[in-house]
TrEMBL record:
Residues 1-35 are annotated as: Disordered. It comes from the Bacteria. PANTHER family: GROUP II PYRIDOXAL-5-PHOSPHATE DECARBOXYLASE (PTHR11999), MIP05841P (PTHR11999:SF70). This is Pyridoxal phosphate-dependent decarboxylase family protein.
Length: 491
């Protein structure tokens, strides 16, 4: 009460209690923000020049860093302006950043950033759209166009509709959330309305599920233990479809979820999607396909058969910050059941309008407000098209095969699986201990020449080299092979 004047009007935030006025322009505020505002073109030129220097040095900077944290600095009280901040960043933090976007970062499955994708990302921040609803901007329509282009790129039928999410984990989370609602539909309940307890126990069958599937089941209240691992084909990471059929038989007609894998992370193996989809003739199940990077096999005529049947899935997960080479974070979720998707993620509020048949994005994913995540992908697809992106896939596949051939001739190493697409999975000759593999990984990292990640394949400690960057060349493979030779010959 005492903060109000006689008319009961609350004071304007930022105005002085002694009758001061709000500044008419941001410059008038003085301080570092006012000073920056007065020099925006010049400061953005300086930022652009810094970015160009960083990109120019990407091939030369050590590929990965063993982190050494700089001494902490307290929250600045007044701030040093953009130029000062850039200097601080360049001094304290940037030297410790990895060349993750560079050509010899072969750890995990890591994409780079094409020029058009980077430009799209810059403009995303510049325009700062919130594509949540279509009340004020065409931004959501650009996102719809991009999703339709991607559907086309992966050869999915028009019944599949796409929504942008932050990564493959969120894509799988959303796909399995729709699956959960589908199970409810079959059992005459709505988990979205009544809670997951109304559903009863749920069975999720998969051959070689990615860890993100298990994490999603935890987040969805279905529980990590809902997953039942199905037997694999001999010497493979692909599911044995006959064993899957037996597991489904055992459920005695109870609806289930099947997670099929298109591109496992160790050996890039592919489940037979057509054979799995055909099982739906006799067994009710929701088919979710984790095609985080494997979906890109569709772009190569020699490898497209690996994802034949992808369109028959009920939900599909594809990462874009991997093989599409857009910056983090970006992935897409496709489903045929947008109605169930909206039932799960509906976010009703008077100011958002009704959900309708073509729901706004706010009703389709876990997020409400978010960035216009489609714009970097739109730029990449507009700039390079299907052909340009097919070329990236073809080149990475050829480079992976090339490294595989070299490793096969090195006495110090042996391949653990044929190079099916873009990952080389190999280990040291003999039976190396996990500690010995870690030594080799650390030595490669310390050399600054390359970054590879360790794994365990069929109980054997191993290494992986994953190719999904548009910048990588034959000369890079040469350098990777050389450092592999070197570190193996060290005692
Ligand atoms: C990378 C990956 C994921 C998880 O992706 P994020 O983008 O890290 O969420 C899931 N499945 C597969 C097969 C992957 O390669």
């Amino acid at each position: 009460m005492d903060a109000r004047d006689e008319a009961g009007t609350p004071p304007i935030p930022g105005s002085s209690p002694t009758g001061g006025h709000l500044p008419a322009t941001p410059e008038e505020t003085g301080g570092s923000l006012g000073a920056d505002h007065a020099r925006v073109p010049e400061l953005l030129e300086a930022t652009r020049a810094y970015a160009v220097r960083l990109l120019g040095g990407l091939g030369d900077r050590p590929v990965a860093r063993t982190p050494v944290r700089p001494a902490p600095v307290p929250l600045p009280e007044t701030g040093i302006g953009l130029e000062g901040a850039m200097e601080e960043f360049a001094k304290r933090w940037e030297p410790g950043f990895a060349a993750g976007a560079g050509p010899r970062y072969l750890g995990f499955v890591t994409g780079g950033v094409t020029p058009a994708a980077l430009a799209g990302d810059w403009l995303t921040g510049t325009l700062d759209q919130n594509p949540t609803s279509g009340l004020d901007s065409l931004a959501p329509d650009l996102e719809r166009e991009t999703a339709a282009w991607l559907r086309d790129l992966f050869g999915l039928p028009p019944e599949h509709e796409g929504t942008f999410v932050s990564g493959a984990t969120m894509s799988t989370f959303a796909g399995l959330a729709i699956a959960r609602e589908w199970l409810g539909e079959r059992r005459g309940v709505s988990p979205a309305e009544e809670g997951v307890a109304a559903l009863g126990p749920v069975t999720v069958l998969s051959g070689s599920p990615h860890s993100s599937v298990v994490k999603s089941l935890s987040m969805l209240g279905l529980g990590r233990s809902a997953i039942r691992r199905v037997g694999l084909l001999p010497g493979r990471e692909a599911v044995d479809v006959a064993r899957l059929a037996e597991e489904l038989d055992r459920l005695d007609g109870a609806p289930a979820i099947v997670v099929a894998n298109s591109g496992t992370v160790n050996t890039v193996d592919f489940d037979d999607l057509r054979a799995i989809a055909a099982l739906r003739e006799h067994h009710p199940f929701w088919l979710h396909v984790d095609a985080a990077f494997g979906a890109f096999a569709a772009l190569s005529p020699e490898h497209a058969h690996l994802v034949a049947g992808l369109g028959e899935a009920d939900s599909v997960c594809v990462d874009l910050h991997k093989w599409l080479n857009v910056p983090y974070d970006s992935a897409i979720q496709f489903t045929r059941r947008r109605d169930l998707q909206a039932r799960v993620f509906r976010n009703s509020a008077a100011y958002l309008g009704p959900v309708g048949d073509d729901p706004d994005f706010v009703h389709l994913t876990p997020e409400n407000s978010r960035r216009l995540r489609a714009l970097p992908a739109w730029f990449a697809l507009a700039a390079y098209g299907r052909e340009g992106h097919a070329e990236i896939v073809r080149r990475d596949v050829a480079l992976a095969a090339g490294l595989g051939e070299r490793i096969a001739t090195m006495p110090a190493y042996r391949l653990l699986a044929p190079v099916r697409l873009n990952v080389v999975c190999f280990t040291l000759a003999g039976s190396p201990s996990p500690a010995r593999i870690d030594e080799v990984v650390d030595a490669i990292t310390a050399s600054g020449e390359a970054f590879l990640t360790p794994t365990i394949h069929e109980g054997v400690p191993a290494l992986r080299a994953a190719f999904s960057n548009w910048r990588t060349t034959e000369a890079d493979v040469e350098r990777v092979a050389k450092i592999l030779q070197e570190v193996a010959s060290r005692p």
